[in-house]
Amino acid sequence: MKKLLVLLPLLLAVALAAGVVGRPAPNVVGKTLEGKPFDLAAYLGKKPIALHFWATNCPPCRLEAPYWAQAQRAYGEQLTIIGVDVQDITTLALDFVKEHGWTFPVVQDATASVAAAFRVTMKPTTVYISKDGTIIGFHPGPYMSAAAFENDLLHVINWRP
Questions:
Q1: Which of 55, 72, 129, 151 is the most buried (most CB within 10 A)?
Q2: Cβ contact 52:72 at 8 Å
Q3: Is the model's pLDDT at 11 over the cut of 50?
Q4: Minimal CA–CA distance to 131: which of 105, 157, 101, 100?
Q5: 79 and 156 in contact (C-beta within 8 Å)?
Q6: How large is the average pLDDT for residues 133-158?
């Protein structure tokens, strides 16, 4: 019974993910942590997108944060990375971004409405969107290795319909 309770959130996340992969990405309109306007539609049609949902109170998010800074440096010309900070205090989120050297845009999701639109039920979660705006991948939970993380990034960068 205890194992089932531990696995239930992951199973739910995977079941929900199955419903979004292959569908058009919902449009995200809001503000970045710096207060600038943000519209996901402005990024479509240029490069594939990694939409990374995270929060400062999420220990796994802290563990994988360096992967994202490194990915931006290594693949920023081929892939757009966008962070989505879910239900955080802005100053804490800005400190987190600075601490980890993130240079990509981070959208503030104070009400978790963006997370809900993408059926994100746990943090961290990464949603991968093709250049044409189709959701082509969904990774609930943290990456357990840099190799697995890089493998997903390369899959998205090289994805063809």
A1: 129
A2: no
A3: no
A4: 157
A5: yes
A6: 95
> For residues 48 and 40, is the Cβ–Cβ distance under 8 A?
no
Domains of the chain by range and CATH?
A: 2-157 (3.40.30.10)
Q: Report, as an integer, the average pLDDT of 31-45.
A: 96
* Angle at alpha carbon of residue 99, lines to 33 and 76, rounded to 5°: 70
Helical (H) or strand (E) element with 108: strand 106-109
Distances (CA, A) of 119 to 15, 91, 98, 115: 10, 26, 28, 6
Half-sphere exposure of 28 (CA within 13 A, CB side): 29
Distance of CA 47 to the CA centre of its chain: 15
- Give per-residue pLDDT as tens, 63-108: 999 999 999 999 999 999 999 999 999 999 999 999 999 999 999 9
pLDDT for the residue numbered 19: 67
Maximum pairwise Cα distance, the chain: 47
pLDDT tops 70 at residue 12: no
DSSP β-bridge partners for residue 8: none
